[in-house]
Write a structure and sequence with these properties.
This protein has helices spanning about 1-20, 25-40, 45, 125-130, 145-150, 155-160, 175-185, and strands spanning about 90-95, 105. The protein has about 190 residues and is mainly alpha-helical. It has a two-stranded parallel ribbon. Keywords: Signal.
Length: about 190
């Protein structure tokens, strides 16, 4: 009987993580934000969330500090590198698994950098928090559309499972979605307000 109870609890856990909280306290929201920032500040995210520079990085991934992406890639205004070397010159648009270490990564979407206003590299928790809760600085998202983006973005999914020995942020995509929903239910608090 204990075995069946344990199995039922494990099967129910992912569904519980997907539930949208209706309300949450400021403290719960701030705790959720700290977990969100742990993800957004991970090099797997910040190396492409580079803003106006248009120059992706290789920081914190086994390279030296402040390591600029190889081949002197400049994404430019196009955000795909059309002005110099396009992202897909090395990164592969396919649904293939990322199983070979140091091989070009695969993703089932067109490779590109995030919009300029989503610059996270080197920003503090307070700066990213203020940025993500404001549709004017987060690519026009309210909490519901931000959650939808997280659930449906091939980039976000790849960030949590980049394969081939690549580092990934702690946690899971389901946990991040839950935390963003919780943060939203608490009114998107930032520690500075």
């Amino acid at each position: 009987m204990k075995y069946l109870t344990l199995c039922a609890a494990l099967l129910a856990a992912p569904a519980a993580a997907q539930e949208t909280p209706q309300n949450a306290t400021r403290e719960e929201g701030l705790a959720a934000w700290e977990r969100i920032f742990t993800v957004t500040s991970h090099p797997r995210c910040t190396n492409c969330h580079v803003g106006d520079s248009g120059q992706p990085m290789w920081e914190g991934l086994g390279y030296k500090p402040d390591a600029v992406h190889g081949m002197n890639v400049q994404a430019g205004e196009s955000r795909i590198g059309a002005e110099s070397i396009t992202c897909d010159a090395c990164h592969v648009t396919s649904a293939a698994a990322n199983t070979v270490p140091h091989a070009p990564p695969h993703i089932d979407d067109a490779w590109r950098l995030p919009p300029v206003e989503l610059d996270w590299l080197g920003k503090t928790s307070a700066e990213v928090c203020a940025q993500l809760r404001d549709p004017d600085t987060n690519d026009g998202h309210d909490i519901a559309s931000l959650v939808d983006h997280l659930r449906n973005s091939a980039f976000v999914a790849w960030g949590f499972t980049p394969g081939a020995g690549r580092s990934a942020p702690e946690g899971s995509l389901d946990a991040l979605v839950h935390d963003v929903n919780l943060w939203g239910a608490a009114g998107t608090p930032c520690a500075t307000n």
